[in-house]
Amino acid sequence: MGASRSLQRSSPMRLLIALLGLLLFLWWMIQPPSSSASLNINLPDASSATPTAAMHPPKKAPPITHVTMNNLTATANPLRNQERLLILTPLARFYDEYWQNLLKLDYPRHLIELGFITPKTHSGHLATAKLQEALRRVQNGSKKHRFAKVTILRQDFDTPVGQTERERHALKAQKERRASMARARNSLVFTTLNPGISWVLWLDSDIVETPPTLFQDLALHDKPVIVPNCFQRYKDNGVWKERPYDFNSWQDSETALNLGKTMKEDEILLEGYAEMPTYRALMAYQRDEKADKHTEMLLDGVGGTALLVKAEIHRDGAMFPTFPFYHLIETEGFAKMVRRLGHQPYGLPNYLVYHYNE
């Protein structure tokens, strides 16, 4: 009996059948699924799916653009050299006076690109709607009046303080407020700055009066960073007068430098507050009505109400610190960073632009 079972287990026929079964199993395992089987897989409805570039590659490959940055200039005569200007505005509220003043700038519009960033607030929503309506009228008009490009960004972060003038300028709100402003400025410039831009003009949304030749006048000085003096018109007993407004453009003082040495790493120096006397030389108070409006002065801090920057300075890495940078933040921190990069900011104490009077 033992010999018989041994012969059955070693039968060539049984071994052949087992081998064929193994081969059939292996063949079945390596076959791709049939089309009918694929229909049983739960896939999202194609009509509701969001297509992506990876899912739907373009039928025609986009062209490759070659840009020779060595040929890009930022000179004292931008019009002659057809240099492109990027005007950037953080826009919390829309003032028609700001918009009308912007339209009066006499640099050719085909050489101007615009960039805006608006906050996630009710006033930000209103500002965006009004801006879009104003842009439609211009961009749908005659071709010679259209701007080369317009970009509108919405902040993806909240505004930390209120937007009334009193709330914006309260001392206790400055660190958070200006860090948020710096973040908005950085988002705006690094999103919109393309390889063809020679100059960046930062123009606040509450600057309502400038000379039409603002850009050319500032560019004429051929400086890496330059800022005019920002004043404000107001009525006093029915008489129009004017006063300094922006105190962020200054020359440093020993008092301020020594004060910085005593501060904690995360504390900031602020200008224009009686609670923090720095005794800096403020450009706001250096105006001489009888002197040449193109008189220059060296600056250690700059304001951002109307700030002209050669685009190469931003490309070098100069940004608006959202953190205490040598105890400075936002535009004043920007000036410090510019100096650390080996460039010198300048100011024009006798050249005025005007801020909206709330």
UniProtKB/TrEMBL annotation:
Membrane topology: Single-pass type II membrane protein
Keywords, in A-Z order: Glycosyltransferase, Golgi apparatus, Membrane, Signal, Signal-anchor, Transferase, Transmembrane, Transmembrane helix
GO biological process, one term: protein N-linked glycosylation
InterPro entries cross-referenced by the UniProt entry: Mannan_Polymerase_Subunit, Nucleotide-diphossugar_trans
GO MF term (any one): alpha-1,6-mannosyltransferase activity
Signal peptide: 1-37
Compartmental location: Golgi apparatus membrane
Top-rank lineage group of the source organism: Eukaryota
PANTHER family: MANNAN POLYMERASE COMPLEXES SUBUNIT MNN9, MANNAN POLYMERASE II
Stated name of the protein: Golgi mannosyltransferase complex subunit
Organism: Orbilia brochopaga
Upper taxonomic lineage: Eukaryota, Fungi, Dikarya, Ascomycota, Pezizomycotina
Gene (UniProt): MNN9
